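ligand=iron/sulfur cluster
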Amino acid sequence: MSVPLLQVNDLKKHFPIKKGLFGRQKEFVYAVDGVSFEIARGETLSLVGESGCGKSTVGRAVLRLFDITAGQVILDGKRIDDAQPSTMRQMRRRVQVVFQDPFSSLNPRMRVRDILAEPIRNFGLAKSKEDLEVRVTELMDIVRLPREALNRRPHEFSGGQRQRIGIARALAAEPELIVCDEAVSALDVSVKAQVVNLLQDLQQKFGLALLFISHDLAIVEHMTHRVAVMYLGKIVEVAPRREIFAAPRHPYTKALLSAVPLPEPGAERNPIILKGDVPSPINPPKGCRFHTRCPYVFDRCRTEEPTLRSAGGEQWVACHLDALPVS
Ligand code: SF4
């Protein structure tokens, strides 16, 4: 069996916060609390869930933007969560990111030419000045932006064009995995579809793997291979796109998907309204973390934490129920 491109094993990230008059007593935000998944080469795994569920923290841990509390992040068979700076340099080239807000992630004082040239230079990917120029112009062609725009600065572009520049910058490092952190969330609907189509084309062309972090399930349904659903720092369900959208097995997934609009005009789902708010990640509920809002809660849920178990095929669910009641 081939090694997955990315393996995340029992990842935990607990952020300390100080409490009390002199800030002595420490509490923790349990942002990510035991998350495991894999991504194969050329695969898109979407990480979905409400705001604050920990999905962006997982993305940042994969990018090693901070030290993790526990667990392992393994790229192509090698651990990167504890890698030395020399190893990390190569790893950083192989895993790139596209953030939500292209305006704040692009240096406003730099011309597009320099924005794209920077990673090529940093990772030693051009043999000469001429080669660098060829690569930079190729990147503009790849993301379908005019070459004459190379001398412009980010504020001279629309939101969709800026996101294309962000994608070109990520591609400049010739990565194998791109973390797309709400990469299309801030865009208008039509622009969103164009950028998603571009990402799909690039994935095919370059065999890229994508960790697609999003709260927009309509977009996810259109473009992913598998979906992992997060709730309060944990993955509650993971399955191939078709299975999860056709027959979600976790009550939380079912509620999330019930809010996704159907493509047929006039067609509607029966939205499931969950009671209450998401509990605080500082003091998550015992047992199943979803039990305070679950319509099917029973005694065992309040004391025993469910672990991910096979629900048939490649569908995995963390719930004590054998099957969801038919509604
Ligand atoms: Fe609901 Fe219990 Fe399943 Fe948690 S374990 S999702 S509370 S039925």
